[in-house]
């Protein structure tokens, strides 16, 4: 499976062309999610990489963000998706956003990449000392539900936020023990 070759890692300066292409591709999709935060075509990429990689330390964060790690999923030196792993939950994140947000480029879907990115990100969650990770998704997002379930997500409930038109499913993934093949070292 292609996902075996996926590497989840921090953004690097050498990712510039691939990252810019990925952001451009994702912006053409109808998703209400974002590929990249605080990014625009005119950013100086080296400065952007430095900024993003300060977020795990809680420095230079976008407004209303908690400390988080921004990881890209890379296959054959090309970015195929990204994950944001929030280190803690605010009241809003506990109800709506969860610990992890992820997107895969439209051209790269249904190859197991999101499932693999989430799997690898759980090791990061363990390294933070988290006992469990909250992931939410729209009730209509069947692909994301599958990704969560394949990573051991345990359904908690379905919520309706007053500010949102759509309901969210909430799942917890316990981190006490590896959930399936953990061949990639942490
Ligand atoms: C959701 C998303 C991340 C999935 O990425 P992906 O790389 O295609 O996911 P994977 O290939 O790892 O797994 C998708 C699974 O959903 C299944 N699937 C895909 N479309 C489906 C659909 N319409 N109905 C039911 N299942 C579907 C696939 O068959 C696969 O299941 P399998 O592993 O049992 O075969 C991607 O569609 C995306 O980026 N969407 C926009 C952003 C988003 O919704 N992010 C998640 C927010 S919670």
Rg value: 16 Å
In terms of structural class, how would the helical and strand content be classed? alpha+beta
Give the beta-strand count. 7
Indicate the multimeric state. Answer: single chain
Major sheet summary line = 4 strands, antiparallel
Question: Overall 3D geometry?
Answer: globular
> In which range does the helix fraction lie?
25-40%
Strand order of the largest sheet: 1-2-3-4
- Quote the distance from N terminus to C terminus: 20 Å
What are the bound molecules?
coenzyme A
Number of helices: 5
Order of helices and strands: EHHEEHEHEHEE
Mean pLDDT: 93
Structure explained in plain terms:
The model has no long low-confidence stretch (mean pLDDT 93). The strands form two sheets. A four-stranded antiparallel beta sheet has the order 1-2-3-4, with helices on both faces. 27% of the residues lie in helices and 26% in strands. The chain has five helices and seven strands. The chain has helices spanning 16-27, 45-52, 91-97, 113-127, 142-150; strands spanning 7-10, 68-75, 78-86, 100-104, 132-138, 154-160, 167-174. With 186 residues, the protein is an alpha+beta fold. The radius of gyration is 16 Å and the shape is globular. A hairpin with a 6-residue loop joins strand 6 (154-160) and strand 7. Residues 31, 33, 102-104, 109-115, 137, 141-144, 146-147, 150 line the site of coenzyme A (COA).
């Amino acid at each position: 499976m292609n996902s075996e070759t996926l590497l989840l890692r921090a953004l690097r300066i050498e990712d510039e062309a691939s990252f810019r292409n990925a952001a451009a591709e994702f912006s053409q999709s109808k998703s209400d999610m974002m590929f990249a935060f605080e990014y625009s075509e005119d950013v100086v990429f080296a400065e952007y990489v430095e900024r993003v990689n300060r977020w795990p330390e809680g420095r230079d964060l976008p407004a209303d963000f908690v400390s988080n790690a921004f990881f890209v999923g890379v296959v054959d030196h090309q970015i195929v998706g990204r994950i944001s792993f929030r280190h803690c939950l605010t009241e809003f994140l506990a109800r709506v956003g969860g610990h992890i947000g992820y997107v895969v480029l439209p051209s790269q879907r249904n190859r197991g990449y999101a499932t693999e990115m989430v799997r690898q990100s759980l090791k990061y969650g363990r390294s933070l000392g988290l006992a469990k990770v909250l992931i939410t998704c729209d009730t209509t997002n069947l692909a994301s539900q599958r990704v969560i379930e394949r990573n051991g997500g345990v359904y908690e409930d379905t919520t309706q936020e007053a500010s949102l038109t759509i309901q969210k499913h909430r799942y917890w993934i316990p981190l006490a023990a590896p959930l399936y093949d953990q061949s990639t070292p942490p």
